[in-house]
Design goal:
With 197 residues, this protein is an alpha+beta fold. The chain has a single domain (3-50, 69-192), classed as Alpha-D-Glucose-1,6-Bisphosphate, Chain A, domain 4. It is built from seven helices and five strands, in the order αβααααββαββα.
Length: 197
Amino acid sequence: MLIDRYLPEFDVSELILVEVDAPSSVVFRAIRETDLRDPVVNALFALREAPMRVSRLLHGAPAPPDPGPITFGDFARGGPGWTFLGEDPGVELVIGSVGRFWRRDYGGRPVSQAEFVPFREPGFAKLVVSLAVRPRPSGSGTILRYEARTATTDDEARRVFRRYWRVIRPGVAIVMRRALSRIRKEAERRAQSLVHG
């Protein structure tokens, strides 16, 4: 898989497979175009960012603007905190991020595609997300595959990240399962409109 080029060794990973009743080409387009925001995801992110909101309020700073729809296509175009790493067109999309994710501001460190693999500065974590499609073995429909891998750059970052990961992992799983559910529903809706269109 393409993800192996960017982060073959990692500290933690999360893998989710979803069956979709739609052709792979339709699912891949839905990966790039589906709005990932929903009320539960918004509430989880609001909870995660509550300390920053309180700080802004206490200091009289304005609230950031509502980001509007958020898609994996936005992330692939270099959305805030993300770097496009690679794509096997119609099959797999890979994006990455470098930061101190355990900090309130995520401790983002902008890196280019070329800088991502060799990045080793102490105190950071590297995150790679892969979204891939493949035909179901039955020949009908698609398997949507999400995998996230995180590797830290030194022992101290590993210690802090593992503690952080134990706390946030359940929330991450909820967010990603809901995002993948939205992609599945959108792909199936598009597939139905092609059949009946």
